[in-house]
Amino acid sequence: MLKKRVAATLVVKDGIVVQSINFKKYLPVGRPDIAIEFLNQWGIDEIILLDISASRNNVEPDFKMVKKAAQKCYVPLTVGGGIKNIEHIRELMHCGADKISLNHSALYQAQLITEAAHVFGDQCVVVSIDAVGTADGYRVYDHVAKKNLEITPADFAKKAIENGAGEILINAVDRDGSYSGFDIELVNSVCTVASVPVICCGGAKNAADFIKVLGETGVSAASAANFFHFTEHSVNITKAIINDQLPVRVETHASYNESSFDERLRITKKADKELEEMLFIRIEKEII
Amino acid sequence: MSTQNIVIIDYGVGNTYSVSNAIKYLGYKRLKISDDEKVIADADALILPGVGAFEEATKNLRARNLLGILNEQVLVKNKPILGICVGMQLFATASEENGLHEGLNWIEGRVKKLDIPDSFAVPHVGWNDVTYNAVDPLFIRNRGNSNFYFDHSYHYECAEEYVAAYCDYGIKVTAAVQKKNIFGVQFHPEKSQTNGLKLFRSFFNSVK
Questions:
Q1: Shortest CB distance from B194 goes to which of A71, A166, A251?
Q2: What CATH architecture does domain A5-250 belong to?
Q3: Fold designation for B6-205
Q4: Model confidence at B1, in pLDDT bands (50, 70, 90)?
């Protein structure tokens, strides 16, 4: 059975992973290669690396950064930011990307979606849509020009799929960095028209948000950024809790059966005596 | 163990870097990414990676004059080869992706668009459980856990005797093929974390 995916989004600005708040404020987190190495060890299902400075600065993708980051990535890696032509895509694939994400170029160079799908297959082409809520409903947001467009995210997704997109990544700009949960209505509006898998992003605070969006909408994957960086055991615990209700991939050796969680679903500290005993438990590293 | 010469065939559309990273992690140092006939002839095991559309893949194999050497190494010298994703699909007689295109015809069969109920999204993307018809040699380290990462819109239809594993996505989807020294997987072992690394280890350990 196909499982729902728990993905991590790494927002990269000028070569550094940042915490992004409303697409406006950015706080540094660390190096992309280190973030990827840890997310891998924590058992993430997929990593989405988005370079938000490339399109804004009108430069090509940072191939060196991607190559270094991909080296320790043994899960699928989607790379976006600054992609303007087929050669950029080819080079990114050589640097270790498994899929590419088109955002700004999907808005203004729709033929690139078609061309990329023709050369690399539609399964390789993710179209990422930034959406904002307005008085007239949801609209697509252009993060370079910093303006709302006329088209709705659902209509844009439909068009992108017709052009050859194999997956849709829907970002709720208003929820970005807000910890207020996924925008179910927005996600639903896209899922109902999409014949391809949809990934949602923006607003995740804890496992409960994942369960809600994975259970109440047709998304194939849900992604978080900030909360995975800043919460202890984040990926493992999130997946363990989700797995009680929905099938996700759980392959970590860590078990949380005897752990307790507070109301925010953060792990609580064990008793000192128990921790002392744990010091003497030997865990053999699995040899492949 | 690590004295094997492993060659990842470079034909321009594969994610060769991802595949080589995963294999290097297992400690195989004599690993090359190449389209050079001499290097390929020296290999103990071959990998045919793939991310891409079938047409582009088969066009590139021909443009780089790889058909002759591959046929010789695999069909005459019986060298073990592992095809990944489109790399596996190339073993088929033909593919229907964007028109009709000829494959290597190593394992008779046709690559067709996933024809599944509407409630299933195409492409088939994500982690899916695989059921084995043949555990040996590819899956001997994966008996207890069969979760692999898939990402494809087309799948390989061939005789049941060559299907080493399949997964359920509304229909039975061929997940692995096997015919003597020819092995192929539809999923991406290089992106299936520990399970994928185990599969690579099983493949290389089966190479004499």
A1: A251
A2: Alpha-Beta Barrel (3.20)
A3: Rossmann fold (3.40.50)
A4: low
